[in-house]
Design brief:
The complex is a heterodimer of chains A (337) and B (369). Helix content of chain A is 39%, strand content 19%. Chain A has 337 residues and is α/β, with parallel strands linked by helices. In chain A, the strands form three sheets. In chain A, strands 1, 4, 5, 6, 7 and 13 form a six-stranded mixed β-sheet that branches. The two termini of chain B are 51 Å apart. Classes of the chains: A alpha/beta (337), B mainly alpha (369). At the A-B interface, strand 2, strand 4, helix 4 and helix 7 of A face helix 10 and helix 14 of B.
Chain lengths: 337, 369
Amino acid sequence: MKIKMLLAGITAGVMFAGSVLASTLDDVRARGKLNCIINTGLAGFAAPDDKGNWAGFDVDFCKAVAAATLGDANKVNYTTATGKTRFTKLAAGEGEILSRNTTWTFSRDVDLSQTFIGVNYYDGQGFMVPKSLGVKSAKELDGASVCIQTGTTTELNLAEFFAGNNMKYNAVPIETNAEAQELYKAGRCDVYTTDASGLYATMISFDNPSDHMVLPEIVSKEPLGPVVRHGDDQWADIVSWVLRAMMAAEEKGITSKNVKQLASQDNKDKEINRLLGKDPLQGLSKLGLSADWAVNVISQVGNYGESFEKHLYPLTIKRGMNALYKDGGLHYIPPIK
Amino acid sequence: MSRKTYKPGNYPDLPPPPGTVGIHGWIKQNLFSSINNSLLTIISVVLLYYFIDGIIGWFFLDAVFDAESKIACRKIDDGACWAVITRRVGQFVYGFYPEAERWRIDITFLTMFLAFAPLLYPDIPKRKWLLYFSLIYPFFAFVLIMGGYFGLQKIEYSLFGGFMLTVILGVCGIVCSLPLGILLALGRQSKLTVVRTLSVCFIEFMRGVPLITLLFVASSMLNYFLPPGTNFSILVRVIIMFTFFSAAYIAEVIRGGIQAIPKGQYEAADALGMNYWQKTRFITLPQALKISIPGIVNTFIGLYKDTTLVVVIGLLDPLGIGRAALADTKWNGLSTETYLFVALFFFVSCFAMSRYSLWLENKLNTDQK
């Protein structure tokens, strides 16, 4: 009798655990909101406006996933994380997506049990110096003091670059980009190093941006992208195809302005029809998405290029590597069929 | 002036000679008592003028109080650009708490004074009734802030931020750590080995670990131990860590107070036949706590300021809100204004605490100074 009760208890426990481990999509739908982990503040990528609404390139991606899964780009809860806490927050389930310019590396992908669903921004680590320093190349930086964000891949890159060129440096460790700006402006460090996008964002915040320059050397590959937890392939597929849909939309010339019209007509390009739900897309039901998922994303958030222009052009960042492959960039999108 | 003569023993009280009293006299005595001093005074005044002129100019005269962005500010004038504060004051105070629900924070904050008044000021009228309110206040505040009951909209903790977050963390930490600290101090003095050992271990562990480590434990480690999906908000975890940390310090401060009480006091209590709890309640604690006031308030002010450390685990306290504001391309680079504003807030709250402690010391002062 006692054993039976025990067994019943265990079974109930297992069933309870099973219900806790429901699919991520079901969790999001049940909650009615997407939990998205973002930066505590990085110009162009994530920053609150005066009304307290988060905006930026990374924030747009959270909105896009919310639009695809919930039909409303505004149904997002934002949780902020620093470089050190972002992975544990994702692992602990405080968010379904980590959209916080995170570099895709082997150990982060494999060792930390995460899934990088693609690259939404190709970046590379650069160096910013005041022009008055008289340095023209990063190889002349022997003995310089360098401001560097802790807990990021830039730390390791910096060490490797300097060791590789037989140079020495003094690291000035800092926690956030805002802190780095202050230390750099105050002359506490000669050089500020982080991803080139961050350097440009920092530079235009100065009173005299023309007194500073980004050195030509880009010392690392920094493919930045959204991250999800291991173990839910359906969710990983949803998130990655939202990203691809945004890029495909740019490739096919679908913008937030013309998407409604294109969705209502029969287009010559059948890929547009499939993307916008006019023609059936084999397997869409397996993702658990409705036929108008991409229409929601593009009409509410815009295509990849629109998001880029809106948030990163003001920082004087150019498309460069982040153009589509047909424009000479690296973004090459698998066909949607 | 005509000289008067007086009979011996019949002098009236004459005013002091002119030039030694009043503003005139004070200036003459303190600023222009000799040639050197006069020179120094003049030089100081000139320096002070330029200094203050620059500061006032930057702070007020050349400052811009409202503008669209930093660039718009610079177009108007070249002083401080306070627009970053005025345009975002709601965010600095309430974080991302929904605008329509902010009255809940206002009410919680105002009634907090009502709840604290009977605890802080023993002479207040109707104290007994207010004490009942103080008793239910924590539940009242919790329901009002978090929502989810009585038709109030539930608010996600991730929307908390700004001064509101500082006050929540600070007040909860302070209120919870004092009783815990007292218990730990008594535990450490206890004759029961188990109680004493546990207290010593707890105190030494908490004091031996940096607060920032405890915060990382709260934000990262606890997640691994708790089952997935546990709704144990980071806010509560951080408050618990703050409480434990400051309780350990409070315990040591109070232990110092307890040990400062003359032995005769205990012996007298024993002679009266008091048991342990009576002795603690009527003899030990009242005296020990009074001696410990400066140390306790010191710890509280430290705790209050330490709340800014939550930035490293991604909670947006006023400093975090300030940094986020600086990340907005519109306001990028206005760090001086932002940090000064946050500093002012902390100064005002900490100064108020320290004034209160002085007042309390004077009030409880018997004669042992």
